[in-house]
């Protein structure tokens, strides 16, 4: 491992630690910012992708949309991280499965931070 990648990995792990602490304190935007920095520094770290999935899902769940009857309801496309009104059911199902795996607390230790 060359020195540059070692330093980048150490920096990314430090940013992931900060992102985890911010996630525990429910600072979703701050946690997402540090997870993005960790991804940019070392894209091979799975923890950064998991924290990004958690924060993006929780942020999207906080922003309701107005439904056809005028009531507030969750924006399911944003929660699934999809473009609005995508019609490909296979793509929707695939994204649901991907997020289900990433957000499963039995498989990913970062998800225990949210509970």
In short:
The chain has one domain.
Task: Explain what you see.
- With 115 residues, this protein is mostly helical.
- The chain has one domain.
- Helix content is 62%, strand content 3%.
- The protein is built from five helices and two strands.
- A hairpin with a 5-residue loop joins strand 1 (65-66) and strand 2 (72-73).
- The protein is elongated and about 55 Å long.
Short key terms for the protein model shown above:
115 residues; mainly alpha; 5 helices; 2 strands; 3% strand; elongated
Q: Biggest β-sheet: count, sense, barrel?
A: 2 strands, antiparallel
pLDDT averaged over residues:
86
Based on secondary structure, the structural category is mainly alpha
Through-space gap between termini: 36 Å
Radius of gyration: 16 Å
Structure annotation, total helices? 5
The outline comes out as elongated
State the helical fraction. 55-70%
The figure for the number of domains is 1
The low-pLDDT segments are none
Can you count the beta strands?
2
Order of helices and strands: HHHEEHH
The neighbouring-strand order within the major sheet is 1-2
**What percent of residues are in strands?**
under 5%
Can you lay out the helices and strands and say which pair or pack?
Blueprint: H1 3-24, H2 28-41, H3 46-61, E1 65-66, E2 72-73, H4 76-79, H5 89-103
Antiparallel strand pairs: 1-2
């Amino acid at each position: 491992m060359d020195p540059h990648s070692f330093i980048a990995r150490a920096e990314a792990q430090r940013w992931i630690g900060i992102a985890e602490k911010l996630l525990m304190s429910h600072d979703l935007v701050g946690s997402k910012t540090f997870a993005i920095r960790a991804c940019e520094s070392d894209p091979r770290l799975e923890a950064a992708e998991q924290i990004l999935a958690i924060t993006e899902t929780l942020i999207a769940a906080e922003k309701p949309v107005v439904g056809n009857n005028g009531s507030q309801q969750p924006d399911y496309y944003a929660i699934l991280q999809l473009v609005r009104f995508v019609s490909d059911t296979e793509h929707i199902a695939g994204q649901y499965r991907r997020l289900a795996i990433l957000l499963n607390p039995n498989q990913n230790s970062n998800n225990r931070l949210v509970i």
